[in-house]
Design brief:
mainly alpha
């Protein structure tokens, strides 16, 4: 007998953000929950990628995901504001070019990020906090956008689950639909 898998909803994401003790953790949770990035994609983001996006005045970063597939990650205004505040208030040295750093200014170890998210989820009162991981936030992203009315095809593209060649004729239209929904997704914090 397989029990149904727990999944996170928007209220749980909001509770986790409120339970954060650092601006970095808030920015990480919002980024994972509202972009659908994989943990490897999140930890590979550089501050230069992010600042170049800001300088262009847009909301998208082209990344190379699993299977060397390229896709755009869309950062809504709330995610950007959270990342901007994290960058502005960061006091530790920056010992590498990554956007999200460990508390010592180095690359974040995946295991440490997992433990941090579990700890925040426990503090937020999420009953299945032991199951919370970057992947759980990625899954939550799909549920949140589906509930907000984003078509499944757009969610598939957003998460990088489809072959980019198959959807290349529709990328602009799909990206625009995704962008519209992502840009309007916010929680009160």
């Amino acid at each position: 007998y397989n029990k149904p898998k727990n999944y996170m909803n928007l209220n749980m994401i909001q509770d986790m953000v409120k339970a954060c003790k650092s601006n970095r953790d808030k920015a990480i949770i919002l980024t994972l929950a509202f972009t659908g990035m994989r943990v490897s994609e999140l930890t590979a983001l550089t501050i230069d990628n992010y600042m170049a996006m800001k300088q262009r005045g847009d909301n998208q970063i082209l990344i190379v995901g699993k299977g060397a597939k390229k896709r755009y990650i869309v950062f809504n205004n709330q995610v950007q504001a959270s990342i901007d505040y994290y960058i502005k208030t960061w006091t530790a040295p920056r010992n590498c070019d990554k956007l999200f750093l460990s508390m010592w200014g180095n690359e974040i170890a995946r295991n440490n990020l997992n433990m941090t998210l579990k700890s925040i989820a426990k503090e937020a009162g999420i009953p299945f906090w032991e199951e919370i991981s970057p992947h759980a936030l990625r899954s939550a992203c799909a549920s949140i956008y589906s509930e907000a009315g984003m078509p499944v095809a757009n969610i598939r593209d957003m998460l990088g689950h489809s072959n980019i060649k198959t959807t290349s004729l529709y990328v602009k239209s799909s990206l625009q639909n995704t962008t519209n929904v992502v840009m309007n997704m916010n929680i009160s914090i």
